[in-house]
Amino acid sequence: MPRPLLFAFVLLVGCYGSPTLEGVQTEPEAASDPEATTPMSTENRGGAPVIGEPSATAQGDRSAELAGVLERLESIDPSTPKNERPGEGLWRTAELEKLAELVGAACGVGAGACRAMLEPIAAAHLPADEIWPLYSLFLSDLRPRGEEGAATLGKELLLRPEAVVRDRAYRLAVGAGAAVRGQPDEEGRRASILPTHPGLGEPVLFVIEQPAACNTLTAGLKGPADSSGRLDVEFAVDCPDMEPLEPEGGMTPRAPRIVWAFDAGPLPASGFALWMAGADEPILAVAPSAPAKK
Question: How would you class 203 by CB atoms within 10 Å of its CB: exposed for 0-12, middle for 13-18, buried for 19 or more?
Answer without folding.
Answer: middle
